[in-house]
Amino acid sequence: MTRIVKFNPFKPGSIVAPGMFAGRLEEILSLEKALFQTKHGNALHFLIKGERGIGKSSLLYFLQTIASGDLESVSCGKFNFLVVSIELEPSNSYLDLIGKVGSEYKRVLKEETHVKAFLSDAWEFLKKWEVMGVKYSSGTAEVQPYEALDDLVSHVSGSLKSIKDKVDGLLILIDETDKPKSGANLGEFCKLFTERLSKRGCNNVCLGLAGLPSVLQKLKQSHESSVRLFNILELDPLKDDEVEEVINKALANAKDINKHDTLIDPAAKTLLVKLSEGYPHFIQQFGYCAFDQDNDGNIDVHDALNGALAVGGAFHQLGQKYFDELYFDQIGSDEYRDVLKVMAERGNSWISKKELQEKLRIKPYTLNNALAALKRKGIVVPRAGKAGDYRLPLMSFAVWIKGFAQAKEIQQRQMEFKKEEI
Predict the structure, then answer these.
(1) Would you call 204 helix, strand, or coil by DSSP?
(2) What is the structure's pLDDT at 136?
């Protein structure tokens, strides 16, 4: 059968465009409050934390469009912030961090034509910032981080005062904050940068961070009190109706581009919702593969299952990107994987070895060996202070394992039903 070439609206691994964004209303209202407070001289900083694939970067991008005025806010009308948006890398140092903020600030100001005429002396500072890192063009001496930070503070505050009637303030978004080692001194940067701005009377700069939950510990290692700067938002999985909204928006987008409807059976939609369990990246991947399998303009359960379980399908893609090392590469025994399947039924909550033994049909010494090997490889986490309790390291890992098992069971039942019919 010849497959139809068509636009697939789902975007696994990509930031979701504002028009396709769904859910997160409470978080959006909280972030808009931070912008409103900052606009009126009471800067409120925030930190978004959550697992991989939970939608942190998409939420930051959605906020960026609101802050810059490209999209009207839900609760406060239109904002007019300058927005600096950067991502950190594992190799980034303290100086790199300052340099990235400075370089992006330079780029943003150069592109904002309505503020150029009011900057005057600020351009002298901007000439000093190169795209990579921070070096002064006037000399070859290595720049010290404290010098770069002082200059950044001085000229951010000076330039914002020059254009205070033209913009609401400055929003600095820093994504992937968990990636650098603690030597990047992110906590110290946040603490010193915000304090020095305040001392200069510049209170309309908002810092917004996003990263894995481990970012809290890294901030504390860099500066013990830095975490207190932030209003912390933890992203949970989307609700079922919000996942359905994601699917509906994607199919509407496909209709606009392909010029014909792609329908979805209620049972197939329910299956996609169940498999994703609210993880935005998961629904994008499952949706993409189900849409790709469809060849008659109607996504049914068969399309959804084939898209999920085929070689190169959704589970394979998610496994390669997130969990392949944990579930396949480091485990050579199906019995060990059975241990993980039982643990996945608890999400990433604690389960005792006694409970595992009751649920599994394996010998005690096999279970002991499995737990010892899984613990050694970091695939399960032992409970501190309570021997014999274990959990999976990530809720999304549990969702993936459960979904994989459930999809296999559904597919097996369908095959058995067809055999009975024959």
Answers:
(1) coil
(2) 47
Q: How far is Cα 262 from Cα 272, in angstroms, rounded to an integer?
A: 15
Question: For residues 197 and 207, what is the distance between their CA atoms, to the nearest angstrom?
Answer: 12
Nearest one of 58, 20, 62, 61 to 249, comparing CA atoms: 20
Instruction: Fill in the DSSP letter of residue 3.
Output: P
Cα gap 372→390, rounded to integer Å: 11
DSSP SS3 for 422: coil
Q: H or E segment at 355?
A: helix 353-359
CATH code linked to domain 24-234 = 3.40.50.300
Buried b (16+ CB within 10 A) or exposed e, 183-219: ebbbbbbbbbbbebbeeeebbbbbbbbbbbeebbebb
- The end-to-end CA distance of the chain, in Å, is 24
Structure tokens at 360: 């599994």
| pLDDT digit string, tens, across residues 349-398 | 899 999 999 988 888 888 998 898 888 877 888 998 888 899 988 788 88
The DSSP line for 124-163 is HHHTT--SSS---TT--SPPPHHHHHHHHHHHHHHHHHHT
Q: How many other C-beta atoms can be found within 10 angstroms of the C-beta atom of residue 274? A: 17
Q: Sheet harboring 381-382: ordered strands across? A: 351-352, 389-391, 381-382
- What is 219-279 written as a DSSP string? HHHH-TTGGGGEEEEEPPPPPHHHHHHHHHHHHHHHHHHHSS--EE-HHHHHHHHHHHTT-
Compute the distance between CA of residue 152 and CA of residue 101 in angstroms, rounded to an integer: 9
Helix/strand/coil for 208: strand
Is residue 190 within 8 A of residue 223, CB to CB? The reply is: yes
Token output for 381: 């986490």
Q: Could you tell me the pTM of the whole model? A: 0.82
Pairing outcome for strands 381-382 and 389-391 = antiparallel
SS3 content of the chain, % helix, strand, coil (to 5): 55, 10, 35
Question: Contact, 377 vs 330, CB < 8 A?
Answer: yes
What is the distance between the alpha carbons of residues 139 and 232, in angstroms, rounded to a whole number? 41
Ranking 22-31, 159-168, 407-416 by mean pLDDT, the lowest is 407-416
Domain extents in the chain: 24-234
Residues 6+ apart with CB under 8 A from 350: 383, 389, 390, 391
